[in-house]
């Protein structure tokens, strides 16, 4: 029954577990291309309202099949009673709390209670939503599950059914389970730092014990304080509590077999007894059940497995896949906490210890950073006496030695001090641990950079990654650059640009073909995808979509990568990214105007008002940027600035800046003084702009005046040249053409009026034929190079052109009627009405006037509002007219008189003209028709009053639309490539000047100054606190150093006095005894008074003293560092005996003891034989060379590369060596990666190499140890294709020699010695 469900769950887990998704989500192709935050919140709210019931049904059906609880099936009376004095079972539950079958006579009757046999799994009965009564409406999630539940099922529940996003960081908080006090400042710093880490983009998960005590309570209060002070947009902190079901107080409230939606939970701290309440500030609870009651620690194994499983998953964000890092944060705590964090450190999990929180955390923090030789039993004993005063007397010597061993493993500890930045410590420590654990070489830095991008911590990237220690190539930053763009992280984009990434090279390396959408992947390479709206850019009809070449189903990147990224950022509503990319663009004025146009067009499709206003504000901002850059250019050189206006931009559809400004209706840019000066120059053509208008009109009427010098020209050749070029230049000027058109149009109207009023004959006259010719000549308009269809669309886009077409069509209709003798009079009426439409065209002509133009535009805009007022007026007029007509006139059947009575007369009533038959003063019956038979008289009203006076004639009125003149199309200039490149370079230079001025003005604003001062004050406070801590630490170090020097001086004097006494000078009674050193010195003295020197090989013996022996359940006896040498007395040393295939504990070792010292284990362990077990580790190296063949150097020293191998089951790389049988030269592992024809040559190389001996690995025991010898071959130029792996799970590679390589400890020692031997970098 469960297999199909689990298979389905497994398929759903693929994305959450980091498996490559089978399809790419098209995030960018939404209907409106952009979606605002507010609209997204509305959509999510609606989805939550309609989707909660469906989610509850899915959860109720999935959980019983996959999540189990545990129940005791056999009641065995315990000798202990419950807190209430009741008889309980061995499981801790009373008889009433057992199932009925558990209390019946059973086959197990008389047997001891065994949890493996007597506790069985069954479908869980506690899951759903949890609400803490009296604490608001915050809803959490909870589930009761068996301790044997696979972590993959729990992870699937959290990500799929609870809706949690895959985390980018896992924070496991451990420490004291009982309440403890923290200093107020430390508590504040800890809470801020923890929550800030949890709020990294992509979210982190905080995992605790979930109860309302101890460290769990501190974490909950931190989350509560953040929730109360944060805004809704900052989201919820995911806090997962993993607690034991049997220790939860009031857990009966959570039992709902079909799911609690919600289950109300009551926190009763006073009545909880030895149980604990759940913490109300956690968002999710995993309640681990083993079938018992009141037993703590049940959840620890499952929590460990769950954390390990989550840390092994891969999260893909922004095209970059990273393993989910994990960090352990320690507050306070006791022996159990120390064991937990020691295991975490052993498994490679970094630990951040909060100094000042008490007990274990303070013990570790006090010794963190000290040399290993100074972490002695006496020092740990002194620390325990301070921080564990209550239980110090009960600690045995072996327990203190174990503490010394565990605390001395400080490679993974980081002390979080009060003056430090907590979140910085956590993230930096996690990044370093992740970097050194799974990666090395340039992969170290690449992985840590991916983590910084995933966490959006550019400060960590600047301080920890982009340092002198690592030089980045621009090509190495391209994947993370893509991730930063897709995940909208502008600070990282700016950082990568500062470190050499160029957008053109970046996009070129990404490839030319890209599809429509938002983000996707091709193989392992992330890519940017571009949704392209159809937005017109210029009057020729070039649209934004036409800039791209069509491919099946998609559009492809072409020509200008910076432009494409800018369009992508604008469409995706990524404002800061767009600003950065625009600053990198070459054609910046055209780019800013194009962005303004795109934003204004997109705002028309936006439904949300706030987003619409944001788009328009951003469009104005880009218009101001275009104005700012053009102002800088115009200030420097007016002629070159005007060339920028008319330069044809190939990137933006072969359009000009001026055309883009007109299409975007950027009137502020068009009204700029430099643009207006250019337009004035274009308007006057070859004429000087200081010519008076009366001179132009005079020369238009009498062109021979041009020969008199009345008109001046800009070019001297025209001013002093022959007459014909001057006449041609004069009449080609736009200002002259415009006024000629005005005169021509006035002449047309005068002639039209003359024909209508004076010369309208049955047969058309000559003047009328002239009107026909004049009018129909307008139909033959030259479409230039635009094309007929584009020109038609452009022509009909203007209102006044539509009015012209209407007037012409009406003229054709009137002409048709006029040519038919029977319709001569209707034709004249139509032509007369058409004359009104031609007269209205004058408004469009006079919009160019400085005096009349603004007033005409005002009237045009006013008329739009008047139409709404007329609608309201029509409602009142018609309603009044219908009532008046129905009351006064009985059964009027003539439609025209009904219209006059209902509409016309009611409209005149508004102006005080009351109809005579209503007023009744001057009414006469002769003015109306009693029966309504006279077509020229209205029907008489039902009244005895006299006849009404005649009604005034109807005078129709017509609304007028205001015009707007389309200015002549600006000229375009096609520049030479060299000239265009120089012009664009000049524009870029002035753009940088403009941006610098903008930054300076931004800094000079009062708000910015206040913010800067606040930041400086905060920084100064932090520096002062750090300085205070440094001074105190420095003082302690100086005092310790002084104390050590005094002790050394005392020992030296004692030695001198002893030597003098031995030489016969003085007597033994006169020698003063040296003062004993205090325990606080933390240093043990040998019997002869000498301080124990640090074992030089101690660092090589660490792996051989791990508490847990590899691949077994044997625990070593803890051996502190100072007790490793056999010469040092260690009276309590009692190591266990372990030999993997022998059980004889009394076997006497015929060889001897481990020469490196104590290991905490007797026997030979898993090694092959007693005594030394020799291995050969060949160090095959070559010089690292660049493409030119030159040897690479770092810090002046040459760089080596070494051949390393890695097995699929191992997490570490290693040298290609291993155990060697007697008589063999090549180890078996090296033969697996070498072709057989190279075996003999490698044997010769190894015999010529230098041999180095180092101690063996962590499998060493007290009577068997490993010894590694290495032989080297130098500068071996062997390509990887000459290497092969017989085992498909074996990987081979050349790796740069570096101290950060995560090799086995003895292998790193070998490499260090080899690097020293050759004088290479390490």
UniProtKB/TrEMBL annotation:
The gene is TRPM2. Residues 141-395 form the TRPM SLOG domain. It is found in: Cell membrane. InterPro entries: Ion_trans_dom, NUDIX_hydrolase-like_dom_sf, TRPM, TRPM-like, TRPM_SLOG. One of its GO terms (cellular component) is plasma membrane. Belongs to the transient receptor (TC 1.A.4) family. LTrpC subfamily. TRPM2 sub-subfamily. It comes from the Eukaryota. PANTHER family: TRANSIENT RECEPTOR POTENTIAL CATION CHANNEL SUBFAMILY M MEMBER 2, TRANSIENT RECEPTOR POTENTIAL CATION CHANNEL, SUBFAMILY M, MEMBER 6. GO terms for biological process: release of sequestered calcium ion into cytosol. The chain crosses the membrane at residues 692-713, 734-756, 803-823, 866-883. GO terms for molecular function: ligand-gated calcium channel activity; metal ion binding. Residues 464-507, 540-672 form the TRPM-like domain. Residues 1083-1096 have a biased composition (Acidic residues). This is Transient receptor potential cation channel subfamily M member 2. Its main location: membrane.
